[in-house]
Design the sequence.
């Protein structure tokens, strides 16, 4: 059986790749994809901990399912915001979205 | 006796009515309403006085003190609370009579005197406000209620002095009166706070019971700058009284207050408000005499000096209202001296009785003098003595009533002033010879300057009055109050005052000491009148020769011994420039500077870190991630 640590290494890598992408990409769609990586890393963690530490229980798996559903909803909302932002400023560059400051 | 509340409530309602809707009425209507209301109030106060003196009467040989009405207004602790109520005892009932009578006379008189003035309705509204405040002052059950009404009379005095608000001199006189009395009231307030702090009560009854034992006991052993706490408190309270009653050196506002309409001067600045200080000392007299006799001595000497000082100035003044103003100061000082030399109980309390007696008689003859002067001013349209002369031919009623008042103030029997002044002199004789002889001299000076005024107005050379306008007698609305007050001035002296008003409420018998007091005082007064007659009746060269011979002294007296200039120097150069300017600098640069500095530092700091809030989401996330990593590291490794 594959050791739990390997799963965790994968999820940490996914998590920080997601963070890196979120910080370094200027394109909001790319940032959204990075965000999906972060969330998926978390969901892997849920599933792995449930499977290895509490095999007789199901909460972790249910949380994973919830997380997937919420991620889908969040993506729909984010896409809607990005489309509106595109309509008002003509591109999807996040550094241009700083007008709330003034 | 709950209906005694009506005496006070009526003028208040009148003030609200006339103040709010007076301008919509016809002027005459407002005057009639005001006068009728005051007449009602007067009637009730006579009924109260009758019921008090002849209905309730004495218990165990002493006049009762009754409180027909009392409500708790502010509650601080169970002991310390401010009440509003009505206290009836001999002096407050007497004051009710004086105030309502003189106020009613002034109301009637003003119907004629103020006829056709702009703001006639406003004038009556203010008169009602004043009557309300003054009546509330005298029936106060506690010292704080007195203070509240004390300030109210100050305000109404201010409003009435400044009635001709388009005249700069009236405006500055009203400000002067308000500021000077307000300054004195600062002392009054501090005194009240000191007294109530140590005794835990504001109540007159508690303060003055048991020979002021409460005050003595609660302030024992506490002293500041060599004087006990009780002495400080009572001296500061007297300072308030001195301001209102125009004692030296706080007298400077009263002569200027003559800028107001003459009936107002008669009511406020002669008969009622200015005796509030005397009334205050009389009200707290047991405290003064038992707890702080040293302050009482101070009162006696300040009063003596003021009486002499004001009488000397009155000799040289040429504005007839100013002569009367200085004579008022001098006469009120008489009352103060009389309180100052009084002791407690029986015949020893002669000074107290005499003071209240003089207050009573003085109110009538001084109001009469002012109203008579108003009648003269109404006829010749000038305040200056030079513009008058031989008016007896034109104004017979004014002439006779004015003469009666002059005889009363000069102390010629059988007019009222003789009896009260005689009691004061008798009280002084038994206490202090120096005070006695000073006051005797002042009595002579008083007779002289009053008759100087009288002869200059009604005798002397005839002046060339404007051809088209001969002086004429005033209308009946003005002469009737004069006649009524003249009757009062003649007969009030025969009231057996010691039967009614004494310091311990127990009647005693007083008699006139003909040989030692009465005859000398009559002789001195007669001498004063004779000199005035020689100088001014026919118009002679003597007065101007004497004034030239006196030179600088005469000028100094004419300029009121430069008291106004001294105060001006004190306030402007010493207080404003030496004290207030540095304080203002300190306030602007140190106090405000500290606040401004704090604001400046905050602003600079926020400017320097505001770049962090750039609106760049990724920067926020970057900071957030680094921050959480740092916290995680701290949790793991510490």
Sequence:
């Amino acid at each position: 059986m594959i050791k739990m640590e390997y799963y965790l290494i994968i999820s940490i890598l996914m998590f920080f790749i997601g963070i890196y992408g979120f910080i370094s990409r200027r394109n909001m769609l790319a940032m959204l994809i990075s965000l999906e990586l972060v969330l998926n890393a978390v969901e892997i963690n849920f599933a792995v901990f449930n499977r290895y530490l509490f095999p007789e229980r199901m909460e972790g798996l249910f949380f994973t399912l919830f997380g997937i559903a919420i991620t889908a909803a969040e993506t729909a909302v984010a896409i809607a915001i990005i489309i509106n932002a595109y309509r008002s400023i003509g591109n999807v560059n996040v550094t241009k979205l700083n007008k709330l400051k003034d | 006796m709950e209906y005694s509340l009506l005496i006070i409530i009526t003028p208040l309602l009148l003030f609200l009515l006339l103040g709010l809707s007076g301008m919509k009425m016809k002027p005459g209507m407002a005057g009639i309403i005001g006068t009728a209301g005051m007449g009602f109030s007067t009637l009730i106060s006579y009924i109260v006085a009758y019921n008090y003196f002849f209905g309730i009467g004495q218990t165990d040989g002493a006049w009762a003190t009754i409180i027909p009405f009392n409500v708790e207004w502010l509650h601080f602790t169970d002991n310390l609370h401010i009440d509003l109520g009505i206290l009836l005892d001999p002096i407050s009932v007497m004051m009710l009579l004086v105030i309502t009578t003189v106020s009613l006379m002034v109301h009637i008189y003003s119907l004629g005197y103020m006829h056709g003035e702009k703001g006639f309705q406003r004038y009556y509204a203010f008169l009602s406000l004043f009557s309300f405040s003054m009546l509330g002052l005298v029936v106060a059950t506690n010292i704080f209620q007195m203070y509240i009404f004390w300030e109210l009379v100050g305000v109404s005095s201010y409003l009435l002095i400044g009635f001709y608000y388009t005249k700069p001199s009236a405006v500055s006189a009203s400000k002067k009166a308000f500021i000077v009395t307000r300054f004195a009231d600062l002392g009054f307030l501090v005194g009240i706070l000191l007294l109530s702090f140590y005794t835990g009560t504001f109540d007159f009854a508690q303060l003055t019971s048991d020979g002021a034992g409460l005050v003595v006991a609660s302030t024992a052993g506490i002293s500041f700058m060599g004087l006990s706490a009780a002495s400080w408190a009572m001296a500061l309270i007297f300072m308030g009284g001195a301001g209102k009653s125009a004692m030296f050196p706080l007298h400077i506002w009263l002569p200027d207050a003559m800028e107001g309409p003459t009936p107002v001067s008669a009511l406020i600045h002669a008969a009622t408000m200015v005796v509030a200080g005397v009334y205050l000392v009389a009200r707290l007299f047991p405290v003064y005499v038992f707890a702080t006799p040293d302050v009482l001595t101070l009162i006696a000497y300040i009063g003596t000096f003021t009486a002499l000082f004001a009488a000397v100035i009155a000799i040289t003044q040429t504005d007839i209202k100013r002569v009367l103003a200085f004579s008022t100061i001098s006469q009120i000082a008489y009352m103060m001296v009389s309180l100052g030399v009084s002791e407690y109980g029986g015949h020893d309390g002669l000074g107290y009785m005499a003071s209240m007696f003089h207050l009573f008689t003085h109110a009538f003859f001084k109001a009469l003098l002012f109203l008579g002067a108003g009648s003269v001013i109404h006829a010749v349209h000038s305040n200056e003595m030079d513009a008058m002369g031989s008016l007896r031919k034109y104004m017979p009623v004014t002439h006779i009533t004015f003469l009666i008042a002059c005889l009363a103030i000069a102390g010629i029997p059988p007019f009222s002033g003789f009896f009260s002044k005689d009691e004061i002199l008798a009280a002084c004789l038994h206490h202090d010879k120096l005070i006695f002889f000073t006051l005797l001299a002042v009595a002579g000076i008083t007779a002289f300057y009053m008759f100087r005024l009288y002869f200059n107005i009604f005798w002397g050379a005839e002046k060339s009055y404007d051809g088209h306008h001969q002086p004429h007698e005033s209308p009946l609305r003005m002469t009737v109050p004069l006649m009524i007050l003249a009757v009062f001035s003649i007969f009030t002296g025969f009231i057996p005052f010691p039967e009614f008003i004494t310091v311990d409420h127990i009647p005693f018998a007083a008699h006139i000491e003909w040989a030692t007091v009465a005859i000398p005082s009559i002789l001195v007064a007669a001498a004063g009148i004779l000199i005035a007659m020689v100088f001014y009746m026919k118009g002679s060269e003597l007065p101007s020769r004497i004034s030239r011979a006196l030179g600088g002294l005469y000028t100094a007296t004419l300029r009121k011994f430069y008291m106004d200039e001294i105060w001006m120097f004190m306030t402007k150069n010493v207080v404003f420039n030496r004290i207030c300017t540095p304080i203002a600098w300190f306030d602007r640069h140190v106090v405000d500077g500290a606040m401004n500095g704090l604001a400046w530092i905050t602003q600079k700091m926020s400017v320097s870190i505001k770049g962090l809030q750039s609106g760049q989401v990724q920067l926020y996330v970057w900071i957030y991630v680094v921050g959480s990593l740092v916290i995680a590291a701290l949790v793991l490794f510490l």
Summary: The interface with chain A takes residues 613-618, 621-622, 625 of chain B (CB under 8 Å). The longest strand of chain B covers residues 66-75. Chain B has a mean pLDDT of 86.
